[in-house]
Amino acid sequence: MGSKRELISIVIPCYNEQEVIRTCHEKVLEGMAGLPFDFEIIYINDGSRDKTLEILREINAADKRARVLNLSRNFGKEAAMTAGIDAARGDALIVLDADLQDPPSLIPELIKIWKDQNADVVYGQRVDREGETWFKKVTASMFYRAINNISAVEIPRNTGDFRLMNRRAVEALKELREHHRFMKGLFAWIGYKQVALQYNRAPRAAGTTKWNYWKLSNFAMEGITSFSIVPLRIATLAGFLISLFAFGYGGFIILITLFFGRDLPGYASLMVMVTFLSGIQLLTIGILGEYIGRIFGETKNRPLYFIEEEL
How would you classify the pairing of strands 121-129 and 92-95? Predict the structure, then answer.
């Protein structure tokens, strides 16, 4: 008897992807064709409002290698990805977006690096981000530079969720059950041997992106507050410096009044100072609120997701 073939799990979160999901399945099958592995494709329907679930049922009926997890509502991509990771049974797991910006044709290269270099994680690193605006590219670069400067964990730049993880890395990741999930940071946090696969990222195959700038800014805030307390330290330092300045300025006014016997008029400067300090206070309260809100969310200890149906 020959040895049992290894199983590869491919996890694909889906939210309103009716235009592209069939093409995605075909491309994944092409990417896995001829490889000496068994595989399963786990689609997670994250509360889609279009015909995504209906199409996934058809795919499941035609190909039993395709598993479908239908979440009870839209929990967000990070939670949907976690649901797929929890359900995966493979010796290795590949996370893939349904929009085909991360091409399934690279699956053989991910597996080759995993095997040849005995890597625990092989992550896709974008060399070119075709189809994205210059503003999005610049802000993404700024975000990665900022978070790596303030975080103790080095998050590879220009990476997304596209990656392969072996079973050891998957089991380590499954132990991290925090509710405010910044998956790129969690992937890096577990450590182990991680190797980059550089590639050119294509535009979406069809459909429209679900990530507007508001959601991206919230996502960036999630990453920063999940992996660093530097904003709190900046607020503390700002408060100290402003207090020091106020103390010095107060001493200056006292000396001028005592030795020269004149007041310092300055209604306009007083209003500017009051407004400035009020802004600093509100900013500091906002920073504190971001962290307290996350503490509040974690203390509820709610499940990360609910599965309504599994095919």
Answer: unpaired
User: Which pLDDT score is estimated for 1?
Assistant: 45
Instruction: Render pLDDT for 103-146 as a digit per residue (tens, 0 to 9).
Output: 888 999 999 999 999 999 999 888 876 656 667 667 777 776 77
Asked if 109 contacts 198 with a C-beta cutoff of 8 angstroms, the reply is no
- Closest to 170 in 3D by CA, of 235, 120, 101, 105: 120
Alpha helix (H) residue ranges in 63-101:
77-87
Name the strand (E) or helix (H) holding 66.
strand 66-71
| Average pLDDT estimate for 69-73 | 93
Q: Are 114 and 93 in contact (CB under 8 A)?
A: no
Question: Whole-prediction pTM value?
Answer: 0.75
Identify the H or E element spanning 38: strand 38-45
Q: What proportion of the chain, given as a percentage, has pLDDT over 70?
A: 80
| Exposure letters 103-119 (e unless 16+ CB within 10 A, then b) | bbebbeebbebbeeeeb
> In the numeric block, which tokens belong to residue 56?
């996934």
> CA-to-CA distance for 299 and 5, rounded, in angstroms?
43
Could you confirm whether domain 7-228+304-310 is CATH 3.90.550.10? yes
Cα 273 to Cα 267: distance, rounded to the nearest angstrom: 10
Name the residue with tokens 């405010």. Answer: 180
CA distances from 162 to 5, 21, 99, 119, 228 (A): 24, 17, 12, 15, 24
CA–CA dist 99, 105 (Å, integer)? 14
Mean pLDDT of 224-245: 74
Helices (H), the chain: 21-32, 52-62, 77-87, 107-116, 134-150, 167-174, 183-189, 213-227, 230-260, 267-300
Please enumerate in sequence order all residues whose Cβ is within 8 A of that of 231, keeping only pairs 6 or more positions apart, or say none: 150, 224, 225, 287, 290
